[in-house]
């Protein structure tokens, strides 16, 4: 009975179980299951897989980078980004495991962003510096958009603090929220304190999908900006993960 799941610290916001199980049903894969595994500490993943013998799993906040040292191999995109959101579990005849990591966030974000990009979106601000922010940066490099990270720890190349970011937004007309700020249940929070600098030329993309309109996106829309939430990206990364889970054995 093929079994898959999502591992993260807090999963109340997640739509992954519903999405995967609807997809299994639609494809007639009634014996496939997908479950959520909340854990305070990802610990030793091989011990976890002894208790829960998954065939593959997704990884979310805050373990996308922490999982990397426990993998046997990574695909080139995940290796370049240094963060993994999909792990395929290969079992040998002697029951030993081979864990291969992938990053489907990055191509999912790129494919979701491309139809929204206008020729004036040449510079971007990425809010946050975690695994999702690195996947966004990978996609922006592929799209030819220059970017800087906005961080609470602004020291370091290619980074700035929130106190300077609002000025940079005069040139950077693409702003991507890759922090969890504003996500359910903290829906009154926003990572962007200066909505007044946003204009109709801005494209504001929030990787959060729950709520569907975060405070960041609602305030940006009031300024006439184009807004996009993370649901399209979520579906795309899940579809790419599905293809990895069900790919024929190498
Ligand atoms: P993460 O590693 O926990 O956090 C990302 C970064 O956000 C951190 O490195 C931090 O950067 C910043 N941050 C965290 N808490 C903050 C706070 N209270 N105030 C300001 N900044 C804060 O998370 P992640 O895995 O990268 O994911 C980020 C978000 O993207 C989450 O909401 C996740 O659900 C969403 N996501 C959505 C999709 C999708 O398919 N739609 C896919 C992946 C992720 P600094 O310390 O540098 O400030």
Give your account of this protein's structure:
With 250 residues, this protein is an alpha/beta fold. The protein has two domains: 3-104 and 234-245, Leucine Dehydrogenase, chain A, domain 1 (Rossmann fold, 3-Layer(aba) Sandwich), CATH 3.40.50.10860; 106-233, NAD(P)-binding Rossmann-like Domain (Rossmann fold), CATH 3.40.50.720. Helices cover 30% and strands 21% of the residues. The protein is built from eight helices and twelve strands. It has a six-stranded mixed β-sheet with strand order 2-1-3-5-6-4. Strands 9-8-7-10-11-12 form a six-stranded parallel β-sheet, sandwiched between helices. Strand 11, helix 7 and strand 12 (226-228) form a beta-alpha-beta unit. The protein is elongated and about 60 Å long. NADP nicotinamide-adenine-dinucleotide phosphate is lined by residues 61-62, 64, 105, 128-133, 151-153, 178-181, 183, 191, 207-209, 230, 233-234, 237.
Short description, anyone?
With 250 residues, the protein is α/β, with parallel strands linked by helices. The protein contains 8 helices and 12 strands.
Number of strands: 12
Major β-sheet, in short?
Answer: 6 strands, mixed
How would you classify the helix and strand content by structural class?
alpha/beta
Cα gyration radius (Å):
19 Å
Helix and strand succession? EHEHEEHEEHEHEEHEEHEH
Terminus-to-terminus distance: 20 Å
Contiguous runs where pLDDT drops below 50 for at least 5 residues? none
How many discrete domains? 2
Within CATH, the superfamily of the largest domain carries the name NAD(P)-binding Rossmann-like Domain
Mean pLDDT equals 95
- Largest sheet: spatial strand order: 2-1-3-5-6-4
Overall geometry:
elongated
Helical fraction equals 25-40%
Tell me which CATH architecture of the largest domain applies here: 3-Layer(aba) Sandwich
For the record, the CATH class of the largest domain is Alpha Beta
Q: Approximately how much beta-strand content do the residues carry?
A: 15-25%
Bound molecules: NADP nicotinamide-adenine-dinucleotide phosphate
Number of helices: 8
- What is the CATH topology classification name of the largest domain? Rossmann fold
């Amino acid at each position: 009975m093929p079994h898959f799941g999502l591992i993260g610290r807090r999963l109340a916001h997640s739509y992954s179980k519903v999405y995967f199980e609807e997809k299994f049903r639609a494809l007639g894969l009634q014996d496939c299951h997908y479950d959520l595994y909340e854990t305070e500490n990802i610990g030793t993943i091989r011990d976890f897989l002894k208790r829960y013998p998954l065939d593959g799993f997704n990884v979310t906040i805050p373990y996308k980078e922490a999982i990397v040292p426990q993998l046997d191999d990574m695909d080139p995109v995940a290796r370049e980004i240094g963060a993994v959101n999909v792990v395929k579990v290969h079992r040998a005849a002697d029951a030993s495991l081979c864990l291969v990591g992938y990053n489907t966030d990055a191509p999912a974000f790129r494919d979701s962003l491309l139809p929204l990009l206008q020729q004036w979106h040449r510079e971007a601000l990425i809010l946050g510096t975690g695994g999702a922010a690195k996947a966004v940066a990978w996609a922006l490099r592929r799209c030819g958009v220059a970017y800087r990270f906005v961080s609470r720890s602004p020291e370091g190349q290619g980074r700035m603090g929130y106190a300077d970011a609002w000025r940079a937004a005069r040139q950077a007309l693409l702003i991507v929220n890759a922090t969890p700020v504003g996500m359910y249940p903290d829906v009154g929070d926003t990572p962007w304190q200066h909505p007044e600098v946003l204009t109709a030329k801005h494209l504001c993309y929030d990787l959060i999908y729950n709520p569907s309109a975060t405070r960041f996106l609602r305030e940006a829309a009031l300024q006439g900006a184009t807004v996009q939430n993370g649901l399209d990206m979520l579906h795309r990364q899940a579809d790419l993960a599905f293809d990895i889970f069900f790919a024929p054995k190498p």
